[in-house]
Fold these 4 entries.
Entry 1:
Amino acid sequence: MNRHMLALVLAMLFCSSLLAFPLPAADAADLASNANIYMYSKPFKIGDLSLLNSRGQRVSLKDYRGRVVLVHFWSISCPACKVEAPLLDWLKKTYGPAGLEILGVNLVDSPASVVNYATKTNCCYPVLCNDGMNNGLQTVRIGGKTTAFLVNDAKEAILEIPGLPTTYIVDCRGEAVAYSVGPATWNHASAQGLIRKLLAESKTCRLDDPNGSQSLGSLW
């Protein structure tokens, strides 16, 4: 599937993305209703992801172990991504000094287009692109519904991307603790409370297995 077709599929999936994505835990109702952020009842470790930054250098997710990271999936033509962008910039400027990292991952548009767009919009956090060889999105049908998974070098489906934007909140241990499909209200008090809590925990974070990883499993 080429990039343009993938972009179209993801755009169509956005409206039905909540049906394709795991339901939130019951104790996350307040956070979800206020900020469109859903907590996992049991966090899961993300398999490693290696992509290229705007300088063509390889960046690995495991390099950020010990820090709180938002892994944000977006595309240039995504209207909802444009709505969320100012809030992500605000979040990075507000909590970046305390250690928050945001990685803007674009696997739909060409690397040159991504870098050019990020430069024009003065994006204040790193943008990562597909290297054109290994990491990418793979559309699949599960339970009669079409969704997409992020596939790493090891051909592991490590994260589901049911629509754009999709954002995962990863704690200092490299575990996904929450996610958002569609624009999240990052400046809401509940969202800020979660970020502050994770940042506080990261100061005393213990990495039991800094090199370990766990994914959703290999699909191929």
Entry 2:
Amino acid sequence: MAQNVTETLAQAPLPDVDSIVILNSILILLLAYLAARAMTSMLVWFSERAYEHRITIKMAIPLLKFALYGLALYYILGSILQLSTVELVAFSGLAGAAIGFGLKDLIAEIIGGLVIVLEKPYQVGDEVEVGKYYGEITDIGPRSTKLVTPDDNLVTVSNQMILSDAVANSNAGRPEMMVVIDLFIDSSSDAPRAMELLKEALFTSRYVYISKDRPAKVLLKDFPFYRRLRAKAYVYDLRREFDFESDVTKRAWEVFEKEGIRPPQMDVANFSLRQDNQE
């Protein structure tokens, strides 16, 4: 079998590659790139106006890119280079040799991109943590994934990370996302009353999303020098995560002050809060 393949590669007459062929190939790839950019912009524009289906529409972006680049490569090999079946086998052999000699990282990135598209550990529009990076996925390309962090930094992550690193997905393709808000009060404060006030601030926030499948709750935990109130609820749009957290925190502390509910004493709280954050 190996001998037959070797003979096929040796006998396959590869086409002459002149400047016209190279320019045509570059032109096809450029057109595929421009078409992918245009279609991506159009889908993003449309998704922002069809809010309920925003993430579903953005899911089509990586599939579209892979399809356009695949068609461009197929056209170059079949129409411009005019490779026959035998020549395609020869090209595959040469491509395999090139991969073995130095394109392993590139192929790993492309395979990682295919895994992302097929298995969907995350999608465009999801809020995820990949490695040490956290943010909203804005683009999934053949080689890399782009996400925007809460500090508005654009981070490009190699797709091959998906083959080795864990991915934490906060919303799994849905526009709403759970947000956890921690408030700390002095151990002598009225904890039941504080829970009621925090729940009221939570339920009346303009950013909250509550349904049968997306409940909201407030939990209490005692520590040696303070108490922790933990509010858990869904924000209606993951892009409003920090607006939601700030809104609930601000309004809760306003009513806490009126009710005499105090924060922990600073002389004992700093050490305890550090312990809590390490849990």
Entry 3:
Amino acid sequence: MSAAFPRKLIFGEDSINQLPEALQDLGLKGKAMLVTGRRFARESGYLDRLGSLLTSHGTDVVVFDEVEPNPSVETVEKGGKLARDEGVGFVIGFGGGSAMDAAKGIAVLAAQGGSLRDYYYPAELKEPVLSIVAVPTTCGTGSEVTKYAVFSEGLRKNVVASDRIVPTAAILDPQVLRHLPAKILAHTAMDALAHALEAYFHVKADLLSETFSLRALKLILKNFKQAYDGEMTYRKRLFYASMLAGFAINLTGTVIPHGLGYYLTERFEIPHGLATSLFLSQFIKFMAERLPERVVELAEGIGFEVSDAEEAGRMLAAKIDELKRYAGLPLSLLEASVPERELQRVVDEGLSYRRNLENCQAKVAAEDIRRIVEQAFKGV
């Protein structure tokens, strides 16, 4: 197994203040493009703070604050053109997964031009790519340490996957989570939970990725409730867990729940982490049937005492549902307002994400996906 990782990783209170030092250590010079969403960076004061830090470093800044949730091809290509026109030397992504993914896409387009579609998986991305500094503001995507960037087009999620878009530096300042609404924290933490679980059952999983998966799972399951309630000590632990889960999928990838959740986000605007979480309990029970020893190992690895795979699957699913219930998240597709008439489309779209299905350690047939979706609709 091989994977690229950030050259510099900074984690800690007020670590955003170390941005100028990080740029100097990495030799990043020239004009910077700050890529972020439409509201948070400006309203929280972080946009001004980052601008001041960069200016103090002698760095000119171009702000691109037009990134929407689930960034579109059009938005990223607009940012890429601006970066090229402005002669940007490196890109800083500040925000959730959408902002960081957009920064990755812009870093490619600014250096190489063309359309974002030219770089969709399975295309092999080659040099040059501008350096990327990622500063996450949610505890979910792990994009600050991964080789993936996901973009929306129509009702499809498309991925650019390459070691060349792993951020050169990642700065994780837990203080940003003070501003994170509880519901968004819950959605993004569910995404991190999905990453850790799915990486564990990926065909590329090994001792290294499992180490990241298990530690992330322990932290999320133990700290979710207090973090949801706003306690910063526990939010900091979720932030760390999200990064670890990002390391796990950077070594492996995602499988069934992500493949099924994409359509729900594009069609019904269900937030990505929530959409993925709607299939997690059913996925665990499915894996308990197909790979019982693996599920027992997982349960025991995070501290559960179980006698067999069925109990392990049931306990894991019940714990996930407990957290979702605590945060007031829907436990079924029905509760999430997905019409029953849409279930076949959910199945068909899920089956179309072949990479996610084929990378699962258990072989998956169409009838398996249909059963998972039907159970997820009922929440059983």
Entry 4:
Amino acid sequence: MTLPARLPGIQAGSIVLVHLVNPTEKFWGVLEELAVAGVTFRGIGVDSFDDWVAQAGRSEPASLGLSTMFVPLFRVERIFLDEPVGQVESYSHRFERRVGVSVEEFLGLGNYEGAAAPS
């Protein structure tokens, strides 16, 4: 069952940071579903993000990648949109600066500039 109310700006397809507890973990990725039971997203641990970006920038065969995960809601501490804050750039901007394409384009999400609108 999906939550009836949506958080402003956070919806399926949003690039997010997910902070978990017990154990403490932080992930970056694409939100797939926010439901009463938990959160489903496709992501990577923030500790591995820079290695993944470097691999993508070198066009190496994938040894690191995003995994689809379901996390029960009781483990979710916070969900943030991946957006710049003041002078601090977002993870998505860091990816685009280092790789040369938007993360949406790289992941084939279809909502990057110049892409056809989803039907």
